[in-house]
Design brief:
Shape of chain B: globular
Shape of chain A: flat
Number of domains of chain B: 2
Helix content of chain B: over 70%
Strand content of chain B: under 5%
Radius of gyration of chain B: 24 Å
Number of helices of chain A: 12
Number of helices of chain B: 11
Oligomer: heterodimer
Number of strands of chain B: 0
Order of helices and strands of chain A: HHHHHHHHHHHH
CATH topology of the largest domain in chain A: MetI-like fold
Number of domains of chain A: 2
Distance between the termini of chain B: 30 Å
Strand content of chain A: under 5%
Structural class of chain A: mainly alpha
Order of helices and strands of chain B: HHHHHHHHHHH
Amino acid sequence: MSNVSVRSVDAVPAPLLRAGKFLFDWIPLVILTVLWEYASGTAVPAEILPPPTRVVGEIQELIVSGEVYSHLFTSLFRIGVGLGLSIAVGVLLGIGMARLDPVEDFFEVLLALTYPIPKTALVPLAILWLGVGTETAVLIVFLACLLPIVLNAYNAAENVDKNLVWAAKMMGTDGRQLFRKVVIPATIPEILTGVRQAIPIAFIALVSAELIASDEGIGYLILTAGQVGNYPTMFANIVIISAVAFFAVRGYELLRERVLVWT
Amino acid sequence: MDVSVRELDASSVVSVLKSLYSLILVLVLWEVVTQLGYIHYYFLPPLSDVLARFVELTQSGEMLDNAYLTLKRAFLGLAIASVLGVIVGILSARNRVANWFFDPIIKIGYPVPIIALIPVFMLWFGIGDTSKIIMVAVGTFWPIAVNARDAARQVEQNLVWAARMMGTSDWKLLWRVIMPAAAPGIVTGLQIALPLSLIITFVFEMVAGGGGLGALEIQGVRSFQSTQTYAAIIAIMLVGLALDRSLRVVRGYLLRWT
């Protein structure tokens, strides 16, 4: 009897079971979307809350017409440059502060004073210096991402296994080689954690900068579409930037699993 | 008494100087370079001018009025988000139906760069206080709910069983067992949400105006009074420092038993 029941479960192929569970898991979102579709135009005016079908149609249109690509590219470029700079500077600064006392003495108080300032509050300052546009957005993304990366690199470099360092030194590794061959590889997992923390922050910083001071980019599209009353476009762009942020984090996590095979 | 005096010997003075010299260096450089006119006044006014402006704005009451507006918006939004977030978080941790319902919503909602919704909230609720408060509440809800949920999930099952065996009711179980055991995680969520609430408030104020430190700051840029922008940033830094410190103190007090 028990044999039979086990076999009947086995008879359903595993992918199908997984697909079924997936569908079941996402039913609440389907319910909400259907509710939204019906509420729009009945409970709330359709201008204020365009129905999902309308928003999806708008996304399709933005993609087919190619209108969104240049803005999306601008936004991604800003994130890429800002995040890249913050990784380069943050790793150097974090490891430097952990391994060299003069570097720590110099930067510690400066970091302690600047870290309670939300970096998006520096957008007006960036406008003062760099005007409205890509440089301002890159600067804000860079500053916002710097701290999580510095902190993770610092903690990792502080806690590098002493035995590894001693062993390397005993074999005659000099200072620079010690850095390149021992300290940096040992800190990579935590640096990647720092980058993982920085990605969502980068998107918040980017959108803030583009809302306040930009003439391009998805944030700018959202704001201007709202200002001229083109609400389906506004919602479509919000969905686009959210999806990009979601897949950026997801893609990064998948990539990290592939790269960090030894941990 | 004696101990503290003895501790103030030469080495501790040296270590304090060592940790502060870079700050002093930067501030002195700022003042000297700007006084010599190497940097255009609009980009970087001398530190003394910025401080004078800061004092002036503080004395006229403008700074405090704007700080009050910002803090009011951030705190009210945060308070709403804390209540809702903790309720939703604990419900999804302890109840399968609630978890089934909220899990996909949290999965989709958490990664949204919530700042992007500011134009939506301007459309729905206008640019006044209400709109800003709701925006802060929506934005800070996610980290609070996720941290409360994860913390409540990890409550040791033995504690729950022991309480159950002694006949603890559902309500008491929640207040006496689950809430205290999940408290560290809930406070962590609040620590993540607090700076986020300030970020949302500042950006909203910069985009939509209506007073507050963010509006004061961007006004300085628009009216070519960069001293006002710098003075507002000093105020923002002080607010951030004060809130960060006090949250640590509160954390230490609330979690003194851990």
